[in-house]
Amino acid sequence: MHNNTAISELIEAGKWISQRGWVPATGGNFSARTNSGFVVTASGFDKGQLGSHTFIELDHVGNRSASAAKPSAETELHLCMYKLIPAANYVLHTHSVAATVLSRVIKGHSLDLDGYEMQKSLTGITSHLDTLSIPIFDNDQDIDRLSLLVSDHHLHMPIEHGVLIRGHGLYVVGRTISEVRRQLEGLEFLFACEIERLKLVGLES
Amino acid sequence: MHNNTAISELIEAGKWISQRGWVPATGGNFSARTNSGFVVTASGFDKGQLGSHTFIELDHVGNRSASAAKPSAETELHLCMYKLIPAANYVLHTHSVAATVLSRVIKGHSLDLDGYEMQKSLTGITSHLDTLSIPIFDNDQDIDRLSLLVSDHHLHMPIEHGVLIRGHGLYVVGRTISEVRRQLEGLEFLFACEIERLKLVGLES
Amino acid sequence: MHNNTAISELIEAGKWISQRGWVPATGGNFSARTNSGFVVTASGFDKGQLGSHTFIELDHVGNRSASAAKPSAETELHLCMYKLIPAANYVLHTHSVAATVLSRVIKGHSLDLDGYEMQKSLTGITSHLDTLSIPIFDNDQDIDRLSLLVSDHHLHMPIEHGVLIRGHGLYVVGRTISEVRRQLEGLEFLFACEIERLKLVGLES
Amino acid sequence: MHNNTAISELIEAGKWISQRGWVPATGGNFSARTNSGFVVTASGFDKGQLGSHTFIELDHVGNRSASAAKPSAETELHLCMYKLIPAANYVLHTHSVAATVLSRVIKGHSLDLDGYEMQKSLTGITSHLDTLSIPIFDNDQDIDRLSLLVSDHHLHMPIEHGVLIRGHGLYVVGRTISEVRRQLEGLEFLFACEIERLKLVGLES
């Protein structure tokens, strides 16, 4: 995929994600793996109004190949996800209320969901009886250290769809733009359901 | 009704339903009974952006008469609803947060609502003092087995407006497109109210 | 005010109200007092897509003067409000989740609010220290009987801004279209706040 | 900055804020510091449909220099914020459900947030481990008295991003229009998260 194609897809995805309220206050960042390396959103822009000047182009090892804009601080974690999951061509990092709150009130190291038909919107899940497990990592301003933690975890428990960062948000991956958007939408639906369910049955249930 | 008329109505309904967030992540499916059999949405499309190519045409016994697209896995349950309820000409299957969560936290075999004026948006209900009862079936990836369960239930307790599948969503029927849309909107309003009411008074109330 | 002016204002208000989700499933009805009597929405139409054919014209005593459409079942309660409150030129009847649920979980005969700055959006309220009291009447399918109850109540406790019908919705009045819309918006904001507050502090607080 | 530039920016901000539901029922008011003094919204207008005629121009000491419209009752508090915080060029005062409810259920004199990545959308906050503290003042219809209280507080505990008025809403400041909008959006996101978190863990946690 050419950089320009990826950038167009991410601009479109950004509008859609912003309308849902998942990238408030210039938060979030998006990236894609391309022929020449990667494209990733620059820091500090409204993700609902991206343009081609709001992207950074990186080469295959993640060095900036053109443009003087400041790459997002979390670029390192995007590159980490691409390294760990060879099939991933897109990474979307979003900040929804549901992802932020769920990842705080769930005290363990993963959000484990079952009993929801919508789990099947995640590639590889074929039944509501399966458990969908999304790892939760404690937030860390040191992105290198956080990336190392994610990599270590992946060695004995492969990450499939994405990860939650506690009190921070979601990183979700996909092979195609439609897969990554579907997985984001499916996960956000499940987070919204789980928050509502926990309000009714209590955190201890 | 001709297939094309039904398809136009379902495309329009899909936009409206998608805007309300009730068919996330390519979930949900819609169908209509027509002169030549049935039309039903194909699997895997965004239900807010349907086109004529995203529908499957079936004959009177439910066999595919044209088009090579994959019918939705839940087509069988649509056909089951048409068989059980001769007056039904439309079936909308949706996935809202409220329907998903209510059908999980209510442990019994039906959601029973009373005291709401909006119950009267359901055909045949004339007072808030009536009880509106929507059967809840446990989710099952085996749609034939699930359809059989729904049929058995209908024998001794006729289904009038629709059914809930636990942790999955709603199937709602109607004679006309406006009736099925009104019943969907009325039920979703009632689900939203009941969730909020239960948060305040507790699940045991 | 001419009927046509009132109808235009109510069509516009209907779009705005529908977008906020306060008249789902063809619910709700709107009216205005005019030179020649009253105009009121006909039954069974989507209140977000009103046209001049969806209104009934009534004379000064409330008899239908033209048009064969069925008046809304709740027209009687609109006429009752105009009789009780001579300054009222508009009545909007809406069905929001918050009004429906609050009027059920509050067991007494009024919703009493204080401590909210937004109370001042209601005409005559000048401080958050005032108590804003909205009477709650039990729902009744017999609108004549319900109207009588509202009239009786008004004799010893004058209704100022509107009334809640339990499990049903809100009737709000205003002298001008902008006043009635502002009062509707202010009350719905307060209902939304109060529902959230009660979730946090509990119903007994 | 010229008055006209500031007015254009605030008209645009008003549309955006109104769409999010943070200035219902003509509530809220906005202002900017300009070359010739200040511009501030006039009272009683829908903040989502502002025009140049809905602004009051004030000179450097806050006296009305032109226009006969009634300044917002809360203009005094805007001027107070500009006096206390020399770097502030914009003040947005909004009424969201979350700000209104949180400021009531939190009984102390500040809302203290930590553990949220989104705290970093507030200028000067660089880590989720920092505590973001927004002072809460009891509401008072006497704006001069309220302004005095805010000024006193500022002397021993400088206000950085804004203040909450209990049961009333938020005042947020910024050096540029994009900073004040980002800080508003970030704070509202945090308020929404904190309300949801408290519903799950309880007010005492």
Report what the structure shows.
4 copies of one chain form a homotetramer. The radius of gyration of chain A is 16 Å and the shape is globular. Chain A has helices spanning 3-19, 75-84, 97-105, 143-156, 177-201; strands at residues 29-34, 37-41, 55-58, 64-66, 90-94, 110-113, 132-137, 162-165, 169-174. The longest helix of chain A has 25 residues, at 177-201. Chain A is an alpha+beta fold. Chain A has one domain (3-201): Class II aldolase/adducin N-terminal domain (L-fuculose-1-phosphate Aldolase), CATH 3.40.225. In chain A, β3 (55-58) and β4 (64-66) form a beta hairpin. The first copy, chain A, is 37% helix and 21% strand. Chain A is built from 5 helices and 9 strands, in the order αββββαβαββαββα. The model of chain A has no long low-confidence stretch (mean pLDDT 95). A 9-stranded mixed β-sheet of chain A has the order 4-3-2-1-5-9-8-7-6, with helices on both faces. Chains in contact: A-B, A-D, B-C, C-D.
Topology:
The structure is a homotetramer.
Chain A: H1 3-19, E1 29-34, E2 37-41, E3 55-58, E4 64-66, H2 75-84, E5 90-94, H3 97-105, E6 110-113, E7 132-137, H4 143-156, E8 162-165, E9 169-174, H5 177-201
Parallel strand pairs in A: 7-8
Antiparallel strand pairs in A: 1-2, 1-5, 2-3, 3-4, 5-9, 6-7, 8-9
Helix pairs in contact in A: 2-4, 3-5
Any idea what the CATH superfamily of chain A is called? Class II aldolase/adducin N-terminal domain
**Main sheet of chain A?**
9 strands, mixed
CATH topology (level 3) name of chain A: L-fuculose-1-phosphate Aldolase
Rounded mean pLDDT of chain A is 95
Catalytic activity (chains A, B, C, D): 5-(methylsulfanyl)-D-ribulose 1-phosphate = 5-methylsulfanyl-2,3-dioxopentyl phosphate + H2O
Cofactor (chains A, B, C, D): Zn(2+)
Protein name (chains A, B, C, D): Methylthioribulose-1-phosphate dehydratase
Domain Class II aldolase/adducin N-terminal (chains A, B, C, D): 8-195
